[in-house]
Amino acid sequence: MEKYQEIERSIIKKYRKEIWAKFVKAVNDYKLINENDKIAVCISGGKDSFLLAKCMQEIKKHGKINFDLEFIVMNPGYNEANLELIKENANKLDIPIHIF
């Protein structure tokens, strides 16, 4: 099993109560995703934005609503080491990012 698959599984299994169930409840309660929506998740490089990206991937994969999903990184002038770290982490997590 690839590392990103372990992470996806842990979000739904290990962190079901703390993260996954609350995320799904909020999406459903507030109707945050509708049929044929086009959603962009902006990734800053921190753990919160990467977790949101993985949750969005999982809800797209396992949910009942059809929507488009893109992952973007707005580069305000990151130094090369930080930008490379974001790219590496996105690759490890199987998140296809677009950098602007």
Low-confidence residue ranges: none
Strand elements, count: 3
Order of helices and strands: HHEHEHE
Mean pLDDT, nearest integer? 97
Radius of gyration: 14 Å
Which class of secondary structure composition applies to the elements? alpha/beta
Distance between termini? 32 Å
Plain-language structure description:
The protein has 100 residues and is α/β, with parallel strands linked by helices. It has four helices and three strands; from the N terminus they run H-H-E-H-E-H-E. It has helices spanning 3-12, 16-29, 47-62, 80-92, and strands at residues 38-42, 68-73, 97-99. It has a three-stranded parallel beta sheet, with helices on one face. The longest helix has 16 residues, at 47-62. The protein is globular, with a radius of gyration of 14 Å. The N and C termini lie far apart (32 Å). The relative contact order is 0.18. The mean pLDDT is 97.
Topology:
Blueprint: H1 3-12, H2 16-29, E1 38-42, H3 47-62, E2 68-73, H4 80-92, E3 97-99
Parallel strand pairs: 1-2, 2-3
